[in-house]
Specification:
This protein is mainly α. The protein has 7 helices and 2 strands; from the N terminus they run H-H-H-H-E-H-E-H-H. The relative contact order is 0.13.
């Protein structure tokens, strides 16, 4: 008898005889001791990780920012009709004398000086269509921005539901995987005993073969459950961007 098989047999014997536990109690205790939820981040943490990792959420947030920018643009669109004009000239210009500036009618002589002159002016040309359509464009932009926020909220809600589903699926698949492992161990113990009893002539070949087939079937189910468990872990890792040490 191999060492692992001896250990399995010893565990089952202790569970069933020494502590007077049934197989169901033994499995239930094993499930509690191997509760995978204790090895995973809290569900709220997983949801936050998924939102941070999701490319689709990032797209909707960027769209929301863009739409908010459009609203700001439409609210300031009237500024495009304001023109600021500036000019600069350098040369010899005729200037009024101080007497002329003071209003002396007897002073008729202008004097010329070399100087620089700057001109700055502001003008506003606002088309009627800009006034009439401005409110409609702003309302339309705000509607698109609101729609973008709703799309983000919907995407986040759907992502939350997906994470919750994958999390619960992982817990369920892990329990099935543990049960399949326990069943295989149980059939291995029976197979060891059946082999010994068959060698001693206690059971016939038919009973021995039946037990071996049950072990093979349990082993096949174990591999299927193991595959489902690995897939469930990978699915939750993929949506959250995490790497679970399980």
């Amino acid at each position: 008898m191999k060492i692992r098989e001896k250990l399995i047999l010893a565990i089952l014997l202790i569970a069933t005889n020494s502590f007077s536990q049934s197989i169901n109690e033994f499995i239930e205790n094993g499930l509690k001791e191997n509760d995978i939820s204790k090895k995973l981040p809290h569900l709220d943490t997983l949801i936050a990780m998924a939102k941070e990792h999701s490319p689709f959420i990032k797209v909707t947030l960027n769209e929301q920012q863009y739409r908010d920018g459009v609203v700001s643009f439409e609210q300031r669109a009237w500024l495009q009709y304001i023109n600021l004009e500036a000019g600069y000239n350098y040369g010899i210009f005729d200037n009024l004398s101080n007497q002329q500036i003071a209003g002396d009618p007897q002073s008729q002589v202008l004097f010329s000086t070399e100087q620089s002159r700057y001109q700055v002016g502001v003008s506003l040309r606002l088309p009627l269509s800009a006034i009439v359509n401005r409110r409609a464009r702003i309302l339309s932009a705000k509607g698109e921005a609101k729609k973008a926020r709703f799309e983000t909220e919907v995407a986040e809600m759907e992502l939350e539901q997906k994470v919750v589903t994958l999390y619960n699926d992982l817990l369920k698949v892990h329990r099935m995987f543990f049960l399949a492992s326990s069943i295989v161990d149980n059939f291995r113990v029976q197979s060891i005993r059946a082999e010994k009893e068959f060698s001693n002539g206690i059971i016939n070949i038919t009973e021995y073969t039946r037990l071996q087939q049950m072990l093979n079937q349990a082993s096949m189910n174990y591999e299927l459950q193991r595959s489902d468990f690995v897939a469930a872990v990978m699915a939750l890792e993929h949506i959250t961007g995490a790497d679970f040490d399980i």
